[in-house]
Design goal:
Layout: E1 7-12, H1 14-30, E2 34-39, H2 53-57, H3 64-68, H4 72-92, E3 98-103, H5 105-115, E4 124-128, H6 136-139, E5 145-147, H7 157-175, E6 187-192, H8 197-208, E7 213-218, H9 223-231, E8 237-240, H10 245-251, H11 268-272, E9 276-278, E10 286-288, H12 294-302, E11 315-318, E12 321-324, H13 328-342, E13 349-351
Parallel strand pairs: 1-2, 1-3, 3-4, 4-5, 6-7, 6-8, 8-9, 9-13
Antiparallel strand pairs: 10-12, 11-12
Length: about 375
């Protein structure tokens, strides 16, 4: 464990929650960290932050007046973008070891925009009163710990406990961040659905026997994270067995890639030149939310989409997922997406198209289970 006193960014909208962020910083210091107060105010600059709003906005060649006269949504974007540039610079200069924020909806939107500029594995905690809702736009494809602080404002006997716990957690994460380099193996990524798991397990076993570690990437949006890990050099080989989230994106499924991510699937391995084996696993389906729009249901009724046991209805995978089936034109669109990206590869690449099915839902009656 690293015994150095870690530098922890304590971020918040100081013009309306200054006392709360000061308390958060005090708790970080009490837990053994060195707090750095980072201002993302939208109304006025307080003048006492370690890294003030003007310093942050200078990263985008902006003045604080540009923020104060903007609409709320535009102000969030301006401060979030500049804050992301600033915190990435601090990270690159090895000046910070963790980041924590405490906020409501506006502060959470701004703070997480800043946090997403930091790499996977860097400690990030967001104390947000909206933690029980849909947090996908805040997480993006990053590893932000989101915690419910119960209240966004007020230091009292309840919040003291919760904020103290979070402060201790971020300091602990920062101290433990350095992984021991002993027995670090090369890392292969394998994309998976439950319906492609047997193939994934066989490929994983093959690589383990040859001295590799593996990371299984469930295709519900985390393919974006895999692309980033490839670009950063963490992953050096890929079994793209299940690029199924590409079809999730096509239908606008909640299990697609976050709109906050600005990259492109099936590009990082080709760009980096690392070995990749690509299959169309899961592209025979889409993990769709429970309620399927009428425009898609019509396809099941008229036969342009394969229905479950000729029921003219889609298959319900579980209480959260209904299986959408692409029609012929959509399958062609998916194929062109894959091919157009693999054609740009700079490294060893194999495209394998199984002729007996692309998932457990796409197989003969003889091989399929009863249900």
């Amino acid at each position: 464990m690293n015994n150095k006193k870690p530098n922890i960014v304590c971020m918040g909208i100081l013009d309306i929650k200054g006392d709360e962020i000061k308390f958060l910083a005090e708790e970080v210091e009490r837990a053994g960290g060195n707090p750095i107060i980072f201002e993302i105010s939208l109304g006025h600059e307080v003048g006492w932050a370690d890294i003030g709003l003007s310093e942050i906005l200078a990263e985008s060649a902006l003045k604080k007046e540009d923020v104060f006269k903007a609409s709320r949504s535009d102000a969030i974007s301006l401060v979030g973008t500049a804050g992301a540039l600033k915190i990435k610079k601090l990270y690159d200069e090895n000046k910070i070891d963790g980041v924590i924020s405490w906020a409501g909806s506006v502060g959470t939107s701004t703070a997480t925009m800043v946090m997403r500029a930091l790499p996977i594995g860097f400690p990030k905690i967001m104390l947000s009163t909206l933690a029980s809702g849909d947090v996908s736009s805040w997480l993006g494809n990053k590893d932000i710990y989101i915690v419910n602080p119960i209240s966004e404002k007020g230091v009292n006997k309840v919040t003291r406990k919760l904020i103290g716990n979070a402060a201790a957690a971020i300091v602990g994460m920062a101290r433990y961040r350095e992984i021991q380099n002993m027995d670090v193996k090369p890392l292969v990524a394998l994309t998976a659905y439950g319906t492609t798991t047997p193939t994934v397990i066989k490929c994983e076993k093959y690589m383990h026997e040859r001295g590799w570690d593996s990371i299984i990437i469930h295709q519900v949006g985390t393919g974006a994270t895999m692309e980033d890990l490839i670009d950063s050099g963490e992953i050096t080989a890929v079994y793209e067995i299940t690029p199924g989230e590409i079809s999730n994106n096509m239908y606008g499924s909640i299990y697609g890639i976050s709109k906050e991510w600005t990259g492109d699937r099936l590009t990082a391995a080709s760009r980096k030149g690392i070995p990749q084996v690509v299959c169309p696993g899961g592209l025979d389906q889409s993990a769709y939310q429970v309620t399927v729009p009428e425009k898609y249901l019509e396809g099941f009724r008229n036969g342009t989409r394969v229905s479950y046991k000729n029921s003219k209805a889609p298959y319900v995978h579980n209480s959260a997922v209904t299986i959408m089936v692409p029609d012929k034109d959509e399958t062609e669109e998916l194929a062109l997406y894959v091919i157009s990206r693999l054609n740009k590869t700079t490294g060893p690449t194999a495209l394998i198209v199984p002729m007996r099915g692309w998932s457990a839902y796409d197989q003969s009656a003889e091989n399929a289970s009863v249900d």
